Amino acid sequence: LADFGIEEALRELGVKDINEGSSTGSDNFSNGEVIESYSPVDGKLIGKVKATTQADYDKIMDAATSAFKDWRTMPAPQRGEIVRQFGDKLREKKEALGKLVSYEMGKSYQEGLGEVQEMIDICDFAVGLSRQLHGLTMHSERPGHRMYEQYHPMGVVGIISAFNFPVAVWAWNTALAWVCGDVCVWKPSEKTPLCGVACQNIAAEVFKANGLPEGISNLINGDYKVGEMMTKDKRVPLISATGSTRMGKIVAQEVAGRLGKSLLELGGNNAIIVTPDADIKMTVIGAVFGAVGTAGQRCTSTRRLIIHESIYDKVKEAVVKAYGQLRIGNPLDENNHVGPIIDKDAVKMYQAALEKVVEEGGNIVVEGGVLSGEGYESGCYVKPAIAEAKNDFEIVQHETFAPVLYLIKYSGDVHDALELQNGVGQGLSSAIMTNNLREAEAFLSVQGSDCGIANVNIGTSGAEIGGAFGGEKDTGGGRESGSDAWKIYMRRQTNTINYTADLPLAQGIKFDL
Ligand code: UN1
């Protein structure tokens, strides 16, 4: 691995220091059981962190709540300046962090770099936003009164993120939360803890250089039990959680029970509708990248291709042919298209899905399987597979976080295709491939896609940060990243000011004393 510069990257990110017992960032605070991080790339131990105990958590919360008291009083554009510096640091460390993401999570180096680019982009977005956290002014119904609304910082934001985007999803949340005047406590996935440490180190460096407390950004480590410390904690008014629908339901109920807010980013079951008017070449590129990119482990990965019967065989043949060209192997080697999936449990779920689809009457058209032998020692490399299936198969209704693509045939018109597309529990991303304006507009219309993201002539994955990201139904309803997603990170206040010597009541009510 020396060739890929992993050792050097770990050193540059301060992750090496933890392995040598002298961690930098707030990882210092954790004293619980040891969590080991093994790379799915080669199965080797990358490093260890300690889980956060309840006592550690309470100390971290003290640091966070005390940092909030100062941070919230700093003018938002000045907070933006700190985020600008953080974005610059990310630019400096882009290669190292992209490499760590690739090595710890298993996505290709290009995608690792892409993920860091999303972090840089959201920082730039947040810097501009720091001068635009504005509310409306309204006309009061009473004479001599002024009415307006404003957004204030809210407090400690809890972030629970998943292994598949181990750094970017944190940045989407934290960059916005910071300019909004909030402080963050982050629990990265226990499958990618070192990415968390690397990010914390970068943030800590920026805060230190500006004489600011590190408590503006905090890291906690561990599994769901550590997440629960936050979901149950009244001092955390907002929990932003990314992961499975199962996890989201638990978080939502816990947080709602104490009337906190949650921003949920849960599973997808994303489809591309391929109509008779589709550009087949574009369809193949979009579908293959969507299904095998990040080894099928994006929330936005393409799970279903819903193809019109008149072009079904042609599309199937083209996609199968493209799968034949895929090179599976070390994701740090840029000649490979597909890296490993996250761990052996994920491999089992992938295998179970392929068995289940056959059991339910599906037909495998690109054979799956676990790779072994040289270069595949970690046991986490699987072959991207394709099965012909029916939309109502139980396994098709379920999100399998692996490169398994289902081909589904439709007859009739675009509305028939939409019925299949919308006929799943999840509602994250969707796409249509067509050069027919009527079909495209029907897809985007009120009777069209029911997803949070609906694309025309683009695949389901690879959303830009400028739009609000998230979905409906079992996807949880949250929106993060661009557009006005920042509003959930602030508390909103309506203010009415009377500048007269009279006290008229609203709604014309008379109350004479
Ligand atoms: C995720 O999979 O959790 O749209 C996020 C995309 C990426 C983000 C995915 N920009 O595919």
Automatic annotation (TrEMBL):
Domain Aldehyde dehydrogenase: 32-494
Catalytic-site annotation from UniProt: 265
GO MF: aldehyde dehydrogenase (NAD+) activity
Top-rank taxon, per record: Bacteria
EC id: 1.2.1.3
Enzyme class per UniProt: oxidoreductase
Family to which this protein belongs: Belongs to the aldehyde dehydrogenase family.
Record text on subunit structure and interactions: Homotetramer.
Name this polypeptide is given: aldehyde dehydrogenase (NAD(+))
